[in-house]
Amino acid sequence: MTPPSVDRPGSDRGARVRVAFEESILPPLVALVIAAVVGDILIIIFGQSPGDVYRQLLEGTWGNAYGFGQVIYKATTLTFTGLAVALGIRAGLFNIGAESQLASGGFLAALVGLAMPSGMPAVLAVPACLVAAAVGGGVVGAVPGALKARFGASEVIVTIMLNFVVLALLNYIVAAHIHVSETLHTPEIRAGALPRLAAAFPMFSGAAANTTFLLALATAAVVWWYLFRTRPGYELRAVGLQPDAAEYGGVRVGGVWAKTMVLSGVLAGLGGLNYVLGYKHYYEEGFGTGTGFLGIAVALVGRNHPVGVVIAALLFATLSQGGLAVNALVPKQMVDVLTAVVIIAVATAVPEVRRALAAARTSGIGNRESGIGTAPGPIDSQFPIPDSRP
């Protein structure tokens, strides 16, 4: 009897890698193509050439140091809020409270920066402000996490309501007690300020980009390590995929939810450092308006993966800054519409493309099982048909 064919050990792994690559890259590419086509139509409606508008957009962002610096600045905050939302989604939670968590982190960092003496060394002042921002965001995130774990309260509703409560409370404290006269911001911090990139690279002069961007990249790397290289990260992903199965396997689902919301709040709170420590050096009412909600889009477009979040943050930051660059050709609102189109395209195209890929793979497996033009696949090798001869 001829022995059954055996696949090489690496073949199945290679197939899994290929499938993961296809599902990670193709859906966003299709969504971007759809968005580009819609953008072309909008530009033509405004009587402009799509090539001229896109060229102006790129030249005003990645094509010069100032524009690129502004893209980096905007992408920094979006990276933090995107990571906050993505971490929650990985655990099956939808954190819509990044707006208030971001503000709370920035506010507490500003208070610590104000409380420290002017001569405080940066090696002590910066970590103190960093911890304060993490605590500020984490406390706000802990409230919906605890209510979800203890009472099963919807984190969506709780985080939405907390946005109003926390932002109103912070605005009252600033306006009533610690604002600079005739402004809506606190005095400048005395210690803990982070240098702008222009200090090391003069070509970024005037741009708001600062070294918080490096912290954002380091945070994304830590989140990746936590999710995919640690036991708590594995439990978090298991709860997000199937909480009942995870609980049956010994995972405390409520504890994972509570911890995830705290960590999500910490990530969003760190985003406040970009403005308070790196840009203006004070807390100002409404400094992060819209950034927390746009973090939801960043997480979705980035497929809830830390690397994807960084790339998506750069994409949305480019569109935001590009809207200012092309304002002479088309209204800035057109870029806002294009941003919405990207989000809608991702939401609709991703599941459709994944469904098409799954159908194509199923068709390929069916062809292999019927022996149409292919050698025996992994299923044939692992379960060979026994020889019925004596």
How would you summarize the topology of this molecule?
Layout: H1 9-45, H2 50-59, H3 65-90, H4 98-115, H5 122-151, H6 155-178, H7 212-229, H8 231-241, H9 243-248, H10 253-270, H11 273-276, H12 291-301, H13 306-325, H14 332-370, H15 378-382
Helix pairs in contact: 1-14, 2-13, 3-7, 3-10, 3-12, 3-13, 4-5, 4-6, 4-10, 4-12, 5-6, 5-10, 7-8, 7-13, 8-10, 12-13, 13-14
How would you characterize this protein structure?
- The protein is mostly helical and 390 residues long.
- The chain has a domain at 77-303.
- Helices cover 71% and strands 0% of the residues.
- It is built from 15 helices and no strands.
- It has helices spanning 9-45, 50-59, 65-90, 98-115, 122-151, 155-178, 212-229, 231-241, 243-248, 253-270, 273-276, 291-301, 306-325, 332-370, 378-382.
- α3 packs parallel to α7 (212-229).
- The longest helix has 39 residues, at 332-370.
- The radius of gyration is 25 Å and the shape is globular.
- The protein starts with 8 loop residues before the first helix and ends in an 8-residue tail after the last helix.
- Mean pLDDT is 88; it is low at 1-7 and 373-390.
Would you report the number of β strands?
Answer: 0
The Cα radius of gyration reads 25 Å
Structural class: mainly alpha
Strand content: under 5%
Q: How many strands, what sense, and barrel or not for the largest sheet?
A: none
Question: Roughly what is the average pLDDT, rounded to an integer?
Answer: 88
State the end-to-end CA separation: 11 Å
